[in-house]
Amino acid sequence: MYFAHQLLALIMLAAAATQACVTAHVYLNNCIIGGDTLSAQVFDNGVEVCKGGVSKNLGGSNTVWCINGCQNGASFCATNNGEHATYTSPAGVVVDMGLDGPGFHMNRFQCGGTEDHPLFGTEYESCLAGATFDCGSRPRCNFCDFKATC
Predict the structure, then answer these.
(1) Which pLDDT score, from 0 to 100, does residue 144 have?
(2) Signal peptide location in the record (predicted)?
(3) Mean pLDDT for the chain?
(4) Number of neighbouring beta carbons within 10 Å of residue 98
(5) What's this model's pTM, rounded to 2 decimal places?
(6) Which sequence spans correspond to the domains of the chain?
(7) Residue 131 CB neighbours (<10 A)
């Protein structure tokens, strides 16, 4: 009987985990001066579960950016300039995330140099959602005018 209760609890936990709606707002700033930064806000069923950033030098489109300080030991890793990510829940459920809602956009900006010899960087902003989950009418990501967080 005890085993049946454990099995039932495990099935209910798995069912609850597969019904999650995971979304994210990702901002990436690349500039050769001062390093590159990625910031993310991640929501699980509309509740913010991760908000943070990470810096690296000379990040590129293949760079993996991981934020490990999410709630209850969860983590978030983005690649491809923020167009793809994975969120690992505290229970170990890995959610593969792709573009959602408004998708992805990029901006070129002057990040150093002089008026005669400017240095340009790029910033990327994306909205992501779990690729296998239906978020229904839950709030979705919106762009934040190239701000790190909304």
Answers:
(1) 73
(2) 1-20
(3) 81
(4) 15
(5) 0.77
(6) 2-130
(7) 13
